Amino acid sequence: MGDYPIKELGNKTPLEVADTPNMDLIASHKMGMVQTIPPGMEPGSDVANLCILGYDPKVYHTGRAPLEAASKGITLGPRDTAFRMNLVSLAFIPEGRIRMLSHSSGDISHEEAKELVEGLKTFLERDGIRISLGVAYRHLLIWEDAPPDLPNIPPHDFLGQDVTNFIQDPLSQALWELVKRSWEFLEDHPLNKRRKLRGDLPANSIWLWGQGKAARLAPFYEMFGLKGAVISAVDLVKGIGAQLGFKVINVPGATGYLNSNFKGKAESAIAALKDDVDLVFLHVEAPDEASHAGNLIEKIQAIQVFDKEVVGRIIDGTKDLPAKIMVISDHLTPISRRTHTADPTLFAWAYREELSEGKGKKFCESTAKSSGVFVEKGYELIRVFLA
């Protein structure tokens, strides 16, 4: 949910203009900035969330897709490479050029994506290559004995841009041949024809990226002596939790978008804390998706819904618990960039007993910067939080 100042908002950020009374209360106690993306690493959600949970990405990160595979209970063999497989929308320009229109096929629904992915399995799978259904546009391809040194090109980094040179790169044709094979199946699929008729973008290509070998993460309990749980609509975050030995809590109606079941996530977190879990890692994707779409209004809405339906409910629901609550943006996804950046991000925390009614300090980037608190090694933040 972190961002840059935006001209249309009077050079303020979405967090500065959003109504966030609950996060503001928390920000009045402890607030600062943290570097969740180590220098030289891709500003991905995999890197950032590993960092927040106390794992140095330079030591533990092997790729995004292996973590997503873990969320599905997929065991990768020593010869397997997992790839994230997006359903994307490409524009095929008459001059022979290709442009990335959408990394998510215009936010395709899970039901429609499932129909396409099941067909792609029949069309693309062969000895050594298998496909696993994910959620909405996010899926997996497992490739045994994949060629080494294939490029990792996140599609959300090239929205609206020409991607022809990637696809024509002679050094990585093994990868792009799989992508191009999907065109034959998807282009004339009846579902895509229906999408075009109603004005939606067609899911006319796969895009393979985020690859890596099986991750080997030390269990969280061994690192910190605490039992954890994870709540998210995103396979990547659930996969990180699964690798750490967290209880993975699946909330019906959790989508990763503005229509997600925010209330159900908060209630599930409170129930877990009252049961036998010491720490809950609750992740909300909606502000990020709005940022990728360049939708400023929806981003502000997502932040406000998060504050009310998640943060507010957790403050209310933990009033009888000795709880400590942190709010953090895993990385910035500026509306102007429509992709992740490696800038420091903001966090705030408070003991539940410290929170009371009243106006707090604004939870936003400028207030966090003015605090003078900066955690350079992001993976050390949780140690301070738990101390």
Word description of this protein:
The chain has 387 residues and is an alpha/beta fold. The protein has two domains: 7-61 and 216-386, 3-Layer(aba) Sandwich (Alkaline Phosphatase, subunit A); 80-212, no CATH class. It has 16 helices and twelve strands. The strands form three sheets. Strands 2, 3, 4, 5 and 6 form a five-stranded antiparallel sheet that branches. Helix 5 packs across helix 11 (235-243), helix 6 (110-124) packs across helix 8 and helix 13 packs antiparallel against helix 14 (296-317). The longest helix has 22 residues, at 296-317. The protein is globular and about 60 Å long. It starts with 13 loop residues before the first helix and ends with a helix.
Short overview:
The chain is an alpha/beta fold. It contains 16 helices and twelve strands.
Salient structural properties:
alpha/beta; five-stranded antiparallel β-sheet; 16 helices; 12 strands; 36% helix
Draw up the topology in text.
Blueprint: H1 14-17, H2 21-27, E1 30-34, H3 45-52, H4 57-60, H5 64-71, E2 80-92, E3 98-102, H6 110-124, E4 129-135, E5 138-144, H7 164-167, H8 173-187, H9 190-197, E6 205-212, H10 220-224, E7 228-231, H11 235-243, E8 247-249, H12 262-274, E9 279-282, H13 286-292, H14 296-317, E10 324-328, E11 345-351, H15 365-370, E12 374-375, H16 381-386
Parallel strand pairs: 1-12, 7-8, 7-9
Antiparallel strand pairs: 1-11, 2-3, 2-5, 2-6, 4-5, 10-11
Helix pairs in contact: 5-11, 6-8, 12-14, 13-14
